[in-house]
Task: structure prediction
Amino acid sequence: MGKNMDFHVEKEIREIPDTLRKRRKLSLEEFASVMEEPIFITGMGSSIILPGNNLEKINELSGMNFKINHSTEVSNVNTSTVIALSNSGETKETVLALKNAKAKKKFAITRNKNSSLAKVSKHFIHMICGDEKAVAATKSVVEQTYIVVQLFLEKVGKYKPISSSEISQVEKNLKLDFKDGIIKKFVNADKVIVIGRRGLSGEIALKFKEIARISSEHEIGTEILHGPATTIRKNSIILIVNPEMFTGYEKLLKKKVKCEVFSIKDLGITGDGIYSEIIRFSGLLKFICEIGKEKKLDLDNPEGLSKIATRI
Result:
């Protein structure tokens, strides 16, 4: 790991509620008013798909045309607006993608208005955490998710800032004491299969690998029910992060597989409403950190993150 690539995973997780409080009264109405369809979101790293669930809802309600994908795919997309996320740190790939995009409206969500990404954009949205040359793996994901959701909600005239009660849910999730028995089961698992919406499940699967050093993958909704049960090893664990998508299927899943099945409800993690992904994400991060501590891992040096964010 190179210089200035310090990670402070637990510290950043604890600071998530304050990040949301500072963002709560931010208005993006002017930015939202100039966005043109179709809209494409780009960035290197899995945080680009964390807002996916909420944006799909907005797309359905408003008839908007948006896409979420990785930066290397932007040049082949016919789009009017590109929103580039700096993720944990700006990457050469993301900067080039925004620069080469044919879109009339180019947005950059990053910290520094003089950064490489900001310079190739037409509209700069300022972040309060992260840095164009730093690797901040937690707060930046949450902040950019909040900003993107806010942009789309303001675009359709339905913006509703995150409430004090929702931030309280985040804080409650960050103070949870998880049962030793559950923590140890995850510590000893060969693999964790995360089930849920595309954004949240993918991001959490990545964090299991990075922070807890546990092999993991994600599945979307009920798709896991259609695959062969023989591919799921007995010493795996299935974790359902969007239980409302799996209502009525949990018993069927438990009959099909031989491994243990947990839901965020079993962990005591809560989260509802338009910002449910952020609320649940914070609690799941806390849970993964507890697994990492049980394994006596160095949480400030998670594996793989330096490969996600390449310094410019």
About this structure: Strands lie at 39-42, 66-68, 81-85, 105-110, 123-126, 191-196, 215-220, 236-240, 260-263. The chain has two domains: 9-164, 166-307. Residues 48-52, 306-312 have pLDDT under 50 and may be disordered.
